[in-house]
Amino acid sequence: MFVDWKEQVEIEKEYVDDVEVELDRLNAAIEVAGQEIKDLYDDVSSRLGRDEVEMFATHGMMIEDSEFIGQIKGRIITENVNAEWAVRSVADKFIQVFEDMDDDYLKAKADDVKDVATRMCRLLLHIEGSDLSNLREKSIVVAKAFTASEIVQMNRDKVLGVVSQEGTLTSHAVIMARSWGVPAVIDVSNVLDVVETGDMIVVDGSEGVVILNPDEDTLHIYSEKQREFVDFSKKLSQMAGKSTESEDGYPIKLYANADTGRDVQGALKNGVSGIGLFRTERLYMDRDRLPTEGEQFGLYKKAVQEMGGKTVIFRTLDIGCDKIPGYLNVPDEDNPALGYRAIRLSLARADIFRIQLKALLRSSAFGKAKIMFPMISGIEELRLAKGVLEDVKNDLRKDGVPFNPEIEVGVMIEVPAAAVVSDLIAEEVDFMSIGTNDLIQYTLAVDRTNRNLSHLFSPFHPAVLRLVKMTIDNCRKAGVKVSLCGEMASDSLLIPVLMGMGLERFSMNVDSILKARWIISQLGKKNMEDTLSEIWGLTTAKDVRRFCEDRFGSLKKAF
């Protein structure tokens, strides 16, 4: 078992007389921590995927980050406190900033801070770290919380499941465990108070259930569930090489959302029609400077080449709001969700925008690349963005740089205004993609990160469904391709509704592709159209959700 890092190091605030001694202690811990991270990086490089390895490269950069370390040293100097307290207090501040962010990728950065801070505090207090690399028998590991460093050192052949008292589904540790096929249940209150080494536990990762010392009947039930799960997983794996079509033979195209090479490889493995949303902002976030044109071109070119002639839709830089790297020096805003972000930031910083467009255009010479502008609210923004694109094309022509002059251009429909005028937008683009995560937020005026309002954030709201249907209909009338790339695209209860609306292109995270393909194969398109007419008669989000659960709950239960 593990305990939470704050409890493990038992940090107390102490006032010190000699600041120089504390700074020396801190510098020594930084040096040793840096070497430990390097050793761990070298160890995992030969046996883990690229993303896991890059995570420890991030830890290495953090231990050398002038802002992070500078604030720790500043606190020691200005407050005359012990080094471990300074590490903890600064780390807590960084952790809170990341945990409050909307983007799941950036939210998970809190885990990196926790991991590095844990290591530094352990060294400062001379506490031995946890080591599960030598488990003697197959076990379920229960912890207060896991760090990614602890997970990667586990012998995965010996770990049957993981349970933690705290944590989130988006944490590095949980994502890593799930990628190994290990059932994980997170945020189990007081589990460490009741579980002891040697207890028998059932871990149901699908339902988020943990059962301590089950009786024979319960064991039999879960043995059957385990067998059914294995059989169904085999059935799903057989869907990888099949085309996607409804029960009555209507073809549907499935695309993957991606922001790394690993996502592209997973998409190919699952037999997608292409990448429906390649998020380019990750390249801007993991650094202390803007990526060069060459760095961007290398990433984009590799993606289109790996897809082997299949579509890759690159969304231009979508940062702002809670995703602003410090080097951009963007001023604080009272209402950042409605402020300086996405296409607005790109148009205001044409120097950054032009470099990205040049790299994207160059990549189009090597495969089927497309360009998509985020957070377009109307025709004016669209025309400005297209104007910059045409200028960049002219520059490339003058320099004799090859690119596809007929590259398709599209927009994200994630602002209600854009959905309302989607008939006008359709006259000026080659395709649209409905980004429902933001569309729901802006339509319902609900901050999706605000727990007090989470009950109001619903993709089943009639207003949201009507805007989605309006956009699909307008695209169909104009002969413009339309896809949907928000979380609705992989929702077991909403895939049937979207099919009934006439949506023919779905884009989703790689791990949802086979599930969606199976669901679609169980549905008749004509039946879904008839079902949709019943939904239009419902007046509240609760009514729509209840209807979908009654009608399509069996599909959700299958997983």
UniProtKB/TrEMBL annotation:
Domain named Phosphotransferase system enzyme I N-terminal: residues: 13-108
InterPro entries: PEP-util_enz_mobile_dom, PEP-utilizing_PTS_enzyme, PEP_util_C, PEP_util_CS, Phosphohistidine_dom_sf, PTS_EI, PTS_EI-like, PTS_EIN
Keyword Coiled coil tagged: yes
Enzyme Commission identifier(s): 2.7.3.9
SUPFAM superfamilies: Enzyme I of the PEP:sugar phosphotransferase system HPr-binding (sub)domain, Phosphoenolpyruvate/pyruvate domain, Phosphohistidine domain
Localization: Cytoplasm
Coiled coil (UniProt feature): 16-43
GO molecular function list: phosphoenolpyruvate-protein phosphotransferase activity
Tree of life domain: Bacteria
Domain PEP-utilising enzyme C-terminal span(s) in chain numbering: 238-522
Cofactor(s) required, per the database record: Mg(2+)
Keyword field: Coiled coil, Cytoplasm, Kinase, Magnesium, Metal-binding, Phosphotransferase system, Sugar transport, Transferase, Transport
Substrates-to-products reaction catalysed: L-histidyl-[protein] + phosphoenolpyruvate = N(pros)-phospho-L-histidyl-[protein] + pyruvate
Cross-referenced Pfam families: PEP-utilisers_N, PEP-utilizers, PEP-utilizers_C
Every PEP-utilising enzyme mobile domain range: 136-208
Keyword Transferase: yes
Function: General (non sugar-specific) component of the phosphoenolpyruvate-dependent sugar phosphotransferase system (sugar PTS). This major carbohydrate active-transport system catalyzes the phosphorylation of incoming sugar substrates concomitantly with their translocation across the cell membrane. Enzyme I transfers the phosphoryl group from phosphoenolpyruvate (PEP) to the phosphoryl carrier protein (HPr).
Family: Belongs to the PEP-utilizing enzyme family.
Protein name: Phosphoenolpyruvate-protein phosphotransferase
Native source organism of the sequence: Dethiosulfovibrio acidaminovorans
Primary gene name: ptsP
